[in-house]
Amino acid sequence: MTSSHHSRPIPAALERRMPDVRELASLVRFAKPSTDRVGRRLEKATSVWELREIAKRRTPKAPFDYVDGAAEAEISLRRSRLSYRNVEFVPHVLHDVSDADTSTEIFGRRVAMPLGIAPTGFTRMMHSEGEYAGSAAAADADIPFCLSTMGTASIEDVATHAPDGDNWFQLYLWNDREASAALVERAWQAGFRTLVVTVDTAIAGARLRDTRNGFSIPPQLTARTVLDAAAHPHWWFDFLTHEPLSFASLSRSSGTVADLVNRMFDPSLDHDDIAWLAQLWPGRLVVKGVQSVPDAARIAEGGVDGIILSNHGGRQLDRAPIPLHLLPEVRAELGDAFSIGIDKGIMDGADVVAAVALGADYALVGRAYMYGLMAGGQRGVTRMLDLMHTSMRRTMRLVGVNAIDDLTPEHVNLMTPQPARGHWV
């Protein structure tokens, strides 16, 4: 066959011409100058992982590693993250997904999405706004915020700062039961209505990054930290010009994390103590740190209102069970009506969608929250939540559901674990 392309007329769009200045002007989009460096920095972050990179640049090594690290070889941390990377979604096509609604109910309260901020300790060491930023951002986003026993803002101050928030209190039971009871009473009087008792911290895990960094409360000025200060002047200025750090729910204490845990927490905690708390606490009682189906069943039979599947962020027992893998079995055992939360490894709204599809009522984020906090205080936490929400809505629509309650196990396959590439931590 003979080609005849030379005889075809040249389309006007393919003829060369000099550019029209007016057309060029419409293509030029220079950003307006701004003195808001924090806002510019956060706006450029397109994922929680990018917030983590900002946080790493802006935070001294010891506090950053406290957030970023885990126990021993950090195997549980990697496996938990990998469990979400190996999720395969099963889209259901030809469904109207005009407007995905992420709202749901957690303990009878309507929230904007099935997500809450997990309890974190030493939070004002990561950024001076600490729990004040977290509680306010959560209230603005209409999701729960959980204050830790090891928090650096008091129960009363958080309640005052975010009075319209769904504020939960996380309890470590101490050797001194009277002090624990007094703390629980303070939380109730301040308006907290959900008590989360952590049960996976009989003793402190071996957090080797903290040991190598000499991490302590308050941070000690050693030769190493002085050198690190030169690279993070803003953080040190913030730290030195605000109220000294202490555990605001406790008497002022100092030392390493392991020292505090081993000195104050009760390794004899058992089911009788949970029953005691259920009698003591008038509100909702949730047990956090459940890592097996038999434990989940026995705790649920004990009259609590919910459990949270958690391996403590991989910070206690290394090679602990992976919450996402455990979730379908626990849901099958406890039935649809019992409240099940989940944490560990969640860094994206798609992770939340996967967890809900497999049976979770809600997810909690700890490290993602802290990365946002370190990257930009309350604005950084808000940016993290916005990224989570946007990803959640997009994933739901691409999966083919318009509402959180429409997610089912049919929308998810848990793939055989594959070697991880890219982000491991």
UniProtKB/TrEMBL annotation:
Pfam families, per the entry: FMN_dh (PF01070)
Cofactor requirements of the protein: FMN
Domain FMN hydroxy acid dehydrogenase: 40-417
Organism superkingdom: Bacteria
Record-linked Gene3D superfamilies: Aldolase class I (3.20.20.70)
CDD domains assigned to the protein according to its UniProt record, in alphabetical order: alpha_hydroxyacid_oxid_FMN
InterPro entries: Aldolase_TIM, Alpha-hydoxy_acid_DH_FMN, FMN-dep_DH, FMN_HAD, FMN_hydac_DH_AS
Alphabetical UniProt keywords: Flavoprotein, FMN, Oxidoreductase
Family: Belongs to the FMN-dependent alpha-hydroxy acid dehydrogenase family.
The protein, known as: Quinone-dependent L-lactate dehydrogenase
